[in-house]
Design brief:
Blueprint: H1 2-18, H2 27-35, H3 61-75, H4 87-95, H5 98-110, H6 130-133, H7 152-163, H8 186-191, H9 197-205
Helix pairs in contact: 1-4, 2-5, 3-4, 3-5
Length: 210
């Protein structure tokens, strides 16, 4: 049954993705289409057709644009060292004209946070992630994503995808030769096990997104 639901969700996602990037679609309509999957206060995760979709509210617009380029590169078959595979987002990004990406990203970033946050969850000290992602999951560096208030399931999946290409080979287990998400900084950091990664991700997901 679960499998049937996820197959239906993929079809629904592909349909939404295909109706995007059509000529004559206004900026507001494009943003609405993104928010039919991406949660914000107006469209909470429970109303989204799939779980584990990241919130883009409060995210750096430059980071959003960069990820769109990476999805697009992977969908076009580029050997970009930062490529990122996603059937759904590959299609969305490919159809989105480069000239519109920053405007859409700014609008999405400015939406009300999906999760309004608990301003004071117990912090995780020492937290090896804070150097780059900030003590409260918000950073000034637009190359580094904010993690505050992000969907917890999404954070777990991406952490796993990023570290996988850098994990040492395990005898008997075939190494992946087609990594889903490549990043030469976050990948190696993720491959070094930190005892408190899980607590850090839970902590970040509970913080307000701004
Ligand atoms: C049909 C559902 C769907 C639609 C529509 C959609 N997205 Fe996505 N988006 C996803 C999913 C699923 C992911 C997670 C992909 C992965 O696993 O890497 C994602 C990931 C992203 C990311 C990566 C975020 C991060 O934290 O790294 C960005 C940026 C993004 N989408 C932007 C957009 C924009 C802009 C639009 C509208 C033009 C849009 N998306 C429309 C489903 C969707
Ligand atoms: C040296 C800097 C650095 C450190 C330390 C670091 N990260 Fe990252 N992290 C990054 C960068 C840069 C990215 C963006 C990767 C990209 O652009 O695809 C990232 C991306 C991520 C993502 C994906 C977020 C998204 O929106 O898709 C997660 C999850 C993450 N980091 C978790 C962690 C955790 C947990 C730790 C601590 C164990 C950590 N990071 C430590 C630099 C760092």
């Amino acid at each position: 049954m679960d499998r049937l639901v996820s197959v239906a969700a993929v079809f629904a996602m592909a349909f939404v993705a295909m109706s995007m990037g059509l000529p004559g679609v206004s900026l507001a309509e494009q943003v609405e289409a993104c928010l039919s999957c991406h949660p914000s206060r107006a469209s909470t995760p429970s109303e989204s057709i799939v779980t584990g979709v990241p919130a883009l509210t409060g995210q750096h617009p430059e980071y959003i644009v960069k990820q769109l380029e990476r999805f697009s590169a992977a969908a076009e078959g580029d050997e970009d060292p930062f490529r990122r595979f996603s059937i759904v987002m590959g299609h969305v990004a490919k159809e989105l004209p480069a000239s519109e990406r920053l405007n859409i990203a700014r609008k999405l970033s400015a939406q009300t946070c999906a999760f309004l946050g608990n301003p004071d969850p117990p912090s995780v000290e020492p937290n090896a992630c804070a150097v780059c992602h900030g003590a409260r999951g918000i950073t000034k560096n637009p190359d580094v994503p904010n993690l505050a208030g992000q969907d917890l399931r999404y954070l777990f999946y991406q952490y796993q995808k990023l570290r996988e290409p850098y994990l040492p080979d395990v005898p008997g287990i075939e190494a992946t030769n087609k990594p889903v998400r490549l990043h030469p900084v976050m990948g190696p950091v993720g491959a070094q096990l930190h005892d408190n990664v899980v607590s850090a991700l839970i902590y970040y997901s509970k913080l307000p997104c701004r």
